[in-house]
Amino acid sequence: MTAPKTSPRLEIRDLVRSFDGKRVVDNVSLSIAPGQVTCLLGPSGCGKSTTLRMIAGVEMQDSGTIHVDGALICDTVFRVPPERRSIGLMFQDFALFPHLSVGENVAFGLKGAGTDRKARAHTLLDRVGLAHFIDEFPHQLSGGEQQRVALARALAPSPRIMLMDEPFSGLDNRLRDGIRDETLDLLKEEGAGVLLVTHEPEEAMRMADEIALMRAGRIVQRGAPYTIYNAPADRDAMAFFSDIN
Ligand code: ADP
Ligand code: MG
Prior knowledge:
By secondary structure, the chain is α/β, with parallel strands linked by helices. It is about 35% helix and about 25% strand. It is built from eight helices and ten strands. Helix 3 crosses helix 4. The longest helix has 18 residues, at about 175-190. Bound molecules: adenosine-5'-diphosphate and magnesium ion. Magnesium ion binds next to helix 1. Keywords: ATP-binding, Cell membrane, Ion transport, Iron, Iron transport, Membrane, Nucleotide-binding, Transport.
């Protein structure tokens, strides 16, 4: 008997997207296992956010396929809408709803009875150390606290995939390391597959199980962080890592 094969949480194959006749995402393929963090790392303008937006379903690819837990969610003729993809989003500018309390923000995307939703919100806020803020409003929280609430909100519906687009770049340096580590712990516990977009090599080195190095719409190298750091594929990759010490 063969062992049951577990599907990757996320598998994208040959994604292509052009704007004005220019391929900004050019045959990108990736697969992410449960609990795995893959960093899409590359300079500004190389196509990272466009790739993420196609996976989220808010941008349509020209060609290529997207599978979540082995099920097709998007190709060029078939398309599961964004809200039914079991994908959590955390973007730098994806702000909390200012008119909702912290608890209501976290419970926002949840279905079911009010008491169940509130209990789930409480559990997640407790996990990020902010349960005491449940009835406060976002403007009463610091930037770092708001980012923790955004993480709790994204994880509340137990998404199978978490997409994060430079989520920590608005935070000051002192806070960032702590929040990165907490975020990783929580994501691993929840068993989501994580695709984290960043242009900062240092962030990818700290957070990734695997780095996919992207340049001009293509993935030019994939591997464990230290493998890529120690053996960059070419001079551009080497230059990109050279300011880490
Ligand atoms: P990154 O996230 O790596 O900085 P993006 O995916 O945001 O890169 O953008 C890749 C390229 O695609 C850029 O040249 C950008 O200007 C272009 N682009 C992105 N979205 C659009 C759009 N809606 N219309 C035209 N060009 C776009
Ligand atoms: Mg971007």
